[in-house]
Known about the structure:
Layout: H1 3-18, H2 25-32, H3 36-42, H4 46-66, H5 74-92, H6 97-103, H7 110-130, H8 140-157, H9 160-172
Helix pairs in contact: 1-2, 1-4, 1-6, 2-3, 4-7, 5-8, 5-9, 6-7, 7-8, 8-9
Amino acid sequence: xxxxxxxxxxxxxxxxxxxxxxxxxxxLANDVGIKSASVHYHFPHKEDLGVAVVNAYxxxxxxxxxxxxxxxxxxxxxxxxIDVFRQALIRDNAICLCAMLGAEAKGLPLQVTEAVRAFFxxxxxxxxxxxADAHRKPGSAEIVAALEGSMLLANTLNDIAxxxxxxxxxxxxxx
Length: 175
C-alpha cells in the first residue's frame, strides 16, 4: 500500500469516528509514522484530503454496488444495497463516512460538502434505477435516510438489531 493510500485509510477511519473538525494532519502523520509535512506533500490542504477520502470511499461503495446483478429482482438489488451498509457497520464498527460528514455539512469546506452531496445523489440514483421495476417500494431518499439513521442508532447503542429491523422493514415494502 502506498503512503498516499495509507493516509487515506487512516483519515477515513478518523473522519468516521471523530468527524472532520477533529482530524489533524499531525495525528494522521503520527498514525502512519511520517512527519506532518509529508501529509501535506500528498494533500496540500485539509479540504484536499477530505475530498480525496470521500471520493475513495464513494469508489469503494460503488465497486460493491456495481457487482450487484443487474438482472436481479428489485428486492434482491435492495438487499445487496443494504448489505453494503451492514458490512460497513459490522466490519468497521462505524457509521457511513458521508453520514458523519453530512452531519457537519454546514461547517465543511465547499469542496468536501459537494463530494458528500455527490455520494448521496449517486446512492439515490442507483436506488432509483435498481428499484425502477418494483411494483411497490419506499422512496430512494427514504431508504438512504433510514439506513444511515439506523447505522447511527446501531453504532451508538451497540445493537445491530436496530439496523436489521429497519433493513427488514425496507425489504418488506418492496414487491
